[in-house]
């Protein structure tokens, strides 16, 4: 099907209603129906259940419990180097590189404002001017817990209400500034590499975004920008610690300040990655494979 036709159909689909309905079905215990749905999902996406602590579909009471399943110890070793950041999720690198003139590349011919992405606050945005970013897409087949790429102390979280467009690469290419239109949770940390933003982007059928310190952030009934200040609470997470989770596929975007990190050799758009693998080193030495 032509991409423009697909995009038109997607725009006309009642995404909010579908997402809320999917969330209700996924969080309820439906017995045999839940087991059947999980079994079909495993077959369709060829999920390796030998990595999971619970390997059998019938061990999960709800689809959400299956989708945010814990992995066995050692399934995702975290790179041990003290000055090296690790991948925060399993997924595919969509784009990465420099934040240039306040813009981030979403796809060929598409870019968007990083200030809008993190909620529009100028003081929050100032820390990331001329910095770096990486955008990682999580398909439905991926492990959907989100982990810390580096030690960090939580400073602030911002909930930004929005649309529920699919974050499939096809729609990222055809829907202008999609990531600034979708609902998202922006988590701002102080780290050994300086300020870091972790942006958790919602999408069609993503019934919920949650964090370890808050619980469910999205959906939010207020449907307005909401800010939580954690600057006096000393919430500190170590590299590799779980910081949140998605229900169904979505996207994580990391932002760093100017000269804060250099991506490791071998990172490229379209590359499949796993949580714990090397992401970047602290410092400004330019990687040979970095995008401009």
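-> sequence recovered:
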């Amino acid at each position: 099907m032509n991409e423009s036709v697909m995009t038109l159909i997607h725009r006309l689909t009642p995404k909010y209603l579908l997402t809320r309905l999917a969330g209700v079905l996924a969080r309820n215990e439906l017995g045999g129906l839940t087991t059947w749905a999980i079994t079909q999902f495993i077959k369709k996406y060829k999920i390796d259940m030998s990595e999971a602590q619970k390997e059998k579909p019938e061990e999960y009471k709800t689809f959400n419990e299956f989708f945010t399943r814990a992995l066995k110890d050692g399934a995702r070793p975290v790179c041990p180097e003290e000055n090296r950041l690790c991948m925060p999720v399993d997924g595919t690198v969509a784009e990465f590189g420099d934040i240039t003139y306040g813009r981030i590349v979403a796809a060929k011919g598409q870019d968007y404002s990083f200030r809008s992405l993190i909620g529009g606050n100028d003081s929050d945005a100032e820390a990331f001017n001329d910095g770096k970013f990486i955008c990682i897409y999580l398909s439905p087949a991926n492990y959907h817990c989100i982990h810390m790429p580096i030690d960090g102390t939580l400073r602030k979280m911002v909930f930004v209400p929005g649309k529920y467009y699919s974050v499939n690469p096809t729609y990222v290419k055809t829907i202008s500034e999609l990531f600034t239109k979708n609902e998202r949770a922006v988590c701002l940390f102080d780290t050994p590499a300086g300020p870091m933003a972790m942006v958790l982007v919602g999408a069609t059928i993503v019934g919920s975004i949650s964090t370890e310190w808050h619980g469910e952030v999205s959906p939010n009934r207020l449907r307005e920008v909401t800010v939580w200040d954690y600057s006096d609470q000393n919430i500190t997470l170590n590299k590799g610690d779980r910081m949140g989770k998605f229900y169904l596929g979505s996207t994580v975007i990391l932002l760093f300040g100017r000269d804060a990190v250099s991506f490791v050799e071998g990172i490229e758009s379209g590359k499949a990655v796993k949580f714990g693998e090397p992401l970047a080193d602290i410092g400004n030495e330019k990687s040979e494979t970095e995008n401009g």
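Residues 18 and 153 are 36 Å apart (CA to CA).
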